[in-house]
User: Fold Ig-like domain-containing protein from Daphnia pulex.
Amino acid sequence: MIHFLRTAGEPQFAELIRNVTVTLGREVVLSCVVDNLAEYKVGWLRAEDETILSLHRRVVTHNPRVAVTTRVSVGSSQQSRTWNVLHIRKVKESDEGCYVCQINTFVMMKQVGCIRVQVPPNIVDESTSDVSVNEFDNVTLVCKATGKPVPRIVWRREDGQNNMIPINPQWNATSFISSSWHRGRVKVDDENEEKLRLYGVTRRMMAVYLCIASNDVPPIVSKRIVLKVNFAPLVTTTTNQIADGVLGIEIRLTCQIESHPPSLNHWMKRDRNNSITAVLPRKYSVKDEKLNSPSNYKTNTMLTIHDIQPEDVRNSYICVAVNLMGQAEASIPFYDV
Assistant:
């Protein structure tokens, strides 16, 4: 309890207590400056519940994060000025509120200063984890973040291909800028842009998406969400035809495959009687090479034919790709010159 004294000369507050904004975990300081304090005492209270924190130089709360310091100076007029400073270390959200500096004069004198606690953004576990969908399905990616002020959410592709994210994220669906993305539409909704809705997803939308949360309180945080788009293989040849005047040399045939999940690839050969058999080692070698595409769903499969002989040029060669979504193939024929 703070006791009150009677005296002829009473103290005066020299300046207002400044309100303070502090980041979670930092130290906050409120200064109560009094002229002519003399034998009076200064105390600090929590305004919300009137919990007494300190009396003069002594901390009475059991909170180990609270401390009080006092400094006195005497001017040329012999008038003293006292700084009674409240320190709260490792600030928590629960410390937010107003604090009262009061002097135990007969008619109690008091001032109030307030603390506002800012909390860095944090992405909560309710956000979307990695997602796998079939091509042309719809999917919604969700990213929820807490913090004070309320965090803003921005969506980006990790590979930098952000032309498919609308510049003005409103409720209206926005077409992709590039015509090659014509199947997909995207919109960002909710007040805090927590949801990224993708419509009719295509293989080109398969990527790592970044949910970035910020509220001007460092640090900015982000979460990676991997979107996998499943589709049946598509096989195209980069070698259309092979001339038969290539006897005795080595030649390489190449097919490009788009697939997800990644396909199992193999080569077959078809003779002029339309009989299909597998290619065998020694005479043939097969190599798959993953292409460095943004979504990493493209592969080149290559068949090398060693020491071509007349029986080799009587065949056409077939590259075959198989995954859980289906199968596809392409044929590369020889032709006479």
